[in-house]
Structures are given as structure tokens and as C-alpha cells.
Amino acid sequence: MTMTLTERAATQIRRQLDKRGAGIALRIGVKKVGCTGLTHTFELADEVRPGEHSFVSHGTQLLVDAESLVFLDGSHIDFVTEGLTQRFKFDNPNVDSECGCGESFNVKKPSAAAVADTLAGTPKEPS
């Protein structure tokens, strides 16, 4: 299981942590909402919570809970400027469809074994 950042995304996370004056990572998750089903959640984190997975990319730490990792595994995250909007942009191999506004997404149905392994904290490599 993995998640990676571009250098731009890592730099933006470090800027936000520096601006806040505290914190160790960006916590990313998903929640049910929107016209397609799921949306990303973001929170600057001061500690690693029990059961969270930690990923380091370009010297910047990401934290993801086990339930969200089922939907986010393999994601590559960039920080982009589109017109006057700046945002994190996910290249997520698990996405099946996205809504027209870009706020929510739907994922391919994960296998029951993958979900069970992730929730148990023992993800297995694909065979």
C-alpha cells in the first residue's frame, strides 16, 4: 500500500504546517458526500493516531486511516493552480467516476479480502 506526493504537493503541505507553527503531517481521508459518493478530507495533524498508516514522500508525511486507505491506495497527489483556484489533485487508480463539479468521486468496488486485510492492518501485496 502506498501514497505519493509531487514536490509541489509536499512543498504546499510544509508551507501550511510552517504557517500553522505546529504539526507533523497532512491527514487525508474520505467521507461519504456529494453527488457521486465520496470526497477527500484534509487536516493538519499533530500526532499519529492508532491504526493510521504513514507515508513519506519528498520529506513530507501523510497520514491515512485504514478505512480511507482502501479507497486511496496507490494515489499520487499533486498541488495545482487552475485559474484562480489552488487545490490538491489526486491521481487515484481506484476511481471509477467523478462528478462534473470535481468535488466527489466513486471508486471501483474493492475486493472483500482487500478490505478485510486493510481493516486488520495487514495489507497484502497483489499477486
Strand content: 35-45%
* Radius of gyration from the alpha-carbon trace, in angstroms: 15 Å
Helix content: 10-25%
Largest sheet: 4 strands, mixed
- Summarize the helix and strand pattern as letters: EHEEEEHEEEEH
Shape: globular
Report the mean per-residue pLDDT as an integer.
83
Distance between the termini: 13 Å
Major sheet: arrangement of strands = 3-2-5-4
Query: How many strand segments?
Result: 9
Could you name the ranges where pLDDT drops below 50 across 5 or more consecutive residues? 123-127
- Figure out the total of helices: 3
Question: What is the topology?
Answer:
Layout: E1 4-5, H1 7-20, E2 25-33, E3 37-45, E4 52-57, E5 60-65, H2 66-72, E6 76-82, E7 85-91, E8 95-98, E9 105-107, H3 112-120
Parallel strand pairs: 1-6, 2-5
Antiparallel strand pairs: 2-3, 4-5, 6-7, 8-9
Helix pairs in contact: 2-3
